[in-house]
TrEMBL record, chains A, B:
Keyword hit for Transferase: yes
Stated name of the protein: Cytidylate kinase
EC number(s) on file: 2.7.4.25
Keyword annotations: Kinase, Transferase
Recorded coiled-coil stretches: none
Organism from which the protein derives: Clostridium neonatale
Amino acid sequence: MNKNIIITIDRQYGSGGRKIGEKLADKLGVAFYDRALLKRAAEESGLHEDMFKNAEKRATNLFALSLSSSPYTLSIDDEIFIAQSKTIKKVAEEGNCVIVGACADYVLKDYPNCINVFIHADIEKRKLRAINEYNMPEENIEKTITKLDKCRSTYYVHYTDNKWGKAQNYDITLDSGIGIDNAVELIKMYVNMKNKK
Amino acid sequence: MNKNIIITIDRQYGSGGRKIGEKLADKLGVAFYDRALLKRAAEESGLHEDMFKNAEKRATNLFALSLSSSPYTLSIDDEIFIAQSKTIKKVAEEGNCVIVGACADYVLKDYPNCINVFIHADIEKRKLRAINEYNMPEENIEKTITKLDKCRSTYYVHYTDNKWGKAQNYDITLDSGIGIDNAVELIKMYVNMKNKK
């Protein structure tokens, strides 16, 4: 049985979830997978890296996603999801790690030591982070954020049949308004507590 | 502006959320409202206490709840919700406190220092707690728990128009599988972190 400690982090756009994951991995001294995961999945599958990067963004609505899938053939999005899931399982076998996004909580649902985290924040804080840290254009920023979250939610629902952001699916969810470092500290405490059980 | 620290706790049936609230209030040295809130709301409104106790349990489905409400008259459930909400606002004005259930997060949504918590746990742990701690009959226990949660969810959705257990509505949500005392510790840390911001 795989005994590695795997922490998956899903997050609203602009909530700082990726940064929290990166700092948490650093504090715990474990591997961190975000873009590196997509790069590796691309290498291992032979599919182009850009296709992985934009997979969530293509998921504008469930209806279109359903149309692109058929019971007889795999769509390119299905192929990408499968390739990504294979890489997620591989990295989970290799050692302790933090994985951001990519429905990793669902892909690793049968791993006993998987701790699933969801990070969110209020819209004003997310707007500021998107503009100042991700250099997103200020115009229509709220609309852009809402649309990007809709894509993440749609992609998640389509591939997992679970609800994105439903508390019961995660070990811990946090409003990152308390600050990135505080959020890292709390998740680290949760991880320690769960490992001692 | 009200500067009292109010912590609201909503919870799945059998997750230990009430116990966590009680211990948290004790550790923080603040008032705890659960059944006491209903008792007080009954006294202040003149309505019978039993009506408050069973308000959630009557919410078996949204359709029936909607039928019992009309735009012209208040149903007994509406009257109870209003009476309860008035008492919640009063106790929030009186001082720091922990309030369990009663849609308190929604009722106090405009209070700046309100920290909203949701507690859940896996079904096996909830079954054990229901049988061993709440003395519920073992027969059909999973069905009973599912039904009680459905009532809580329906009641919440009807009166708040929000989703029950949606991470984004809470400051912190936790799987209480880490243990009651650990959950209390984590929420206490969150409260301290938020107050320092």
